Amino acid sequence: MLVSGAEELLADRAVERLVALAREQAPDVEVTRVDGAAYTAGELTLATSPSLFAEDRVVVVENVEKATDDLVLDATAYVAAPQTDVVLVLRHGGGQRGKRLLDAVRAAGHPVATCEPLKKDADKVAFVTQELRRARRRMEPRAVRALVDAVGSDLRELAAACSQLVADTTGVISVEVVERYYAGRIEATGFRVADAAVEGSSGEAVALLRHAFATGVDPVPLVAALAARLRVLAKVSAVRGRGAGAERELGLAPWQLDRSRRELARWTPEGLAQAITAVAQADAEVKGAGRDPHFAVERAVLRIAAAVRR
User: Fold this and answer.
1) What was the pLDDT predicted at 187?
2) Which of 39, 132, 153, 276 is the most exposed place for a label (fewest CB within 10 A)?
3) How many angstroms separate the Cα of 26 from the Cα of each of 51, 56, 86?
4) Angle formed by the axes of helices 141-151 and 121-134, to 10°?
5) Is residue 125 within 8 Å of residue 152, measured between CB atoms?
């Protein structure tokens, strides 16, 4: 089986799941791990050769994306004629190295697990929901969103956050609980500022922004949060009136669509354009084009709030 993709958490889980399934079938199964980056000729043949006691085996070849030429040759030959009592797992982290081997695996019809990073918020929301379901726990939809906003940039951190909340709390996990644990994270702070600005609450937005600066938050991720928030509004605005199918193609979570529809009632196309322009200017200034990055972000926040229709 080929486990391919750059998302390490999902790939690690896929490999360990395969090992666990093999152990369910044969508790004494032998597991051998091979480093593809340091592979020497013949290692795979040795690991997969019939054993004296005819034991089942699992061979996990890691770092196939750094494979030596010997590994590509040996594994390509093995894929064409695999042993019946061996489960061979090839872990490839992405890139073009070893492409000949990957093509051989697919051409032979062997299973492939694709583990690419989750980039869409909708996918991260689904991931959190699944993590909670596995733990037999529930989380309020707004709490899921708050958690993704807070730690959603790294899937391993997101999984760890779910585990911590499950271990430290009881009952349905509320948004208040998530904010108590993770309100200090940069992403959470930035999105709270963006939420207030998009709602036209200039006073609240500036107060949150100044608190963020006082606690050491860098201006760059704050501008990124403003841009992300407005980008969602612009996407939903662009497909309004074209039906639910067009909205689904955006890849946004249902709560994002619902919130954006409500908020767009207070936004004109001209106001949205002004807000996006303000963020673009702030982005350039915090990255070197301006003298005072903090002032640039605060000015952008005020311009966004002012662009909301009263």
Assistant:
1) 52
2) 153
3) 15, 7, 12
4) 110
5) no
Mean pLDDT of each 10-residue bin along the chain, 310 residues long: 93 94 90 94 90 80 94 94 91 91 94 90 89 94 84 83 92 88 63 88 88 81 88 86 71 78 89 93 88 92 90
Q: How far apart are CA 3 and CA 11, in angstroms?
A: 6
CB atoms within 10 A of CB 125: 22
b/e per residue, 136-171, with b = 16+ CB within 10 A? ebebeeebbbbbbbbbbeebeebbebbeebbeebee
Structure tokens at 135: 């733990």
User: Would you say how long the chain is, in residues?
Assistant: 310
Strands (E), the chain: 2-4, 30-35, 57-62, 86-92, 112-114
Q: How far, in Å, CA of 57 to CA of 162, rounded?
A: 34
- For residue 280 the two structure tokens come to 């673009």
Read off the pTM: 0.60
From CA 9, how far away is CA 12, in angstroms rounded?
5
Distance CA 40, CA 170 (A): 51
